[in-house]
Amino acid sequence: MAVLRTFICVAATAVLIQLSMAANYTVGGPNGGWDTATDLRTWATSQKFLVGDNLIFQYPSSHDVTEVSKPDYDSCQTSNKIKSYTDGNTVIPLSSPGKRYFICGAPGHCTVGMKVGIDTLASTSPAPASPSKPPQASPVAPTPQASSKTPPPASPAPETSPSPASPAPETSSPSPEESPKSAPTVSPASPSSSPLGSPPPSPDVPTADSPSTSPPPSGLSQPPQPSSAAKVVFKTIMAMGFSFGIMMLLAF
User: What is the superkingdom listed in this entry's lineage (predicted)?
Assistant: First the structure.
């Protein structure tokens, strides 16, 4: 697709150049014209006609322009004319290379030299060059980059996970063998003398102040004392009975 576009652009450029270079030729000019007095043969041989040029015939109404073949040109015959013009300002484009022949159809004018042969040459513009591939640029070796003076970043220090706290050493209780021996208890010494200088009473003789420690006579038993648990149960029963009685009184 890109090659086709390039070819079209080159061809269009060549056509534009050719059109810009196209020339307009006034037949017989500039010192003469399309008439019987101008040496048209000499004028034609002094020009170089190319494809794209134009022939301009300027003449009065007593003349015309008739295109004929080479034999009719030589014999000044108009019976087999190719085309005839009578507008007085005829422009004929030279669109193809080759020879073309023009005469005046008025009687007697062709025989006195009012005729011209035009040899059109091909255009000399150079043929459009085939699009050439653009040269590929050779890869450029990458230039070594200057090493930075800054040292590489230090690797992060390994994270240290907190070690579990070591349990406090258990203090073992000393074994019975290691425990210190308790000091022997020392009983208080009995007083050497009783107060007021009175001798201590004899243990065998009961005194009035000290209670008798003699055991009760055999045959008499002491009455059983109620235990603390029995007292608690008795008090609970009494409280519940009292509460029930109050509730009955309130109900009635």
Answer: Eukaryota
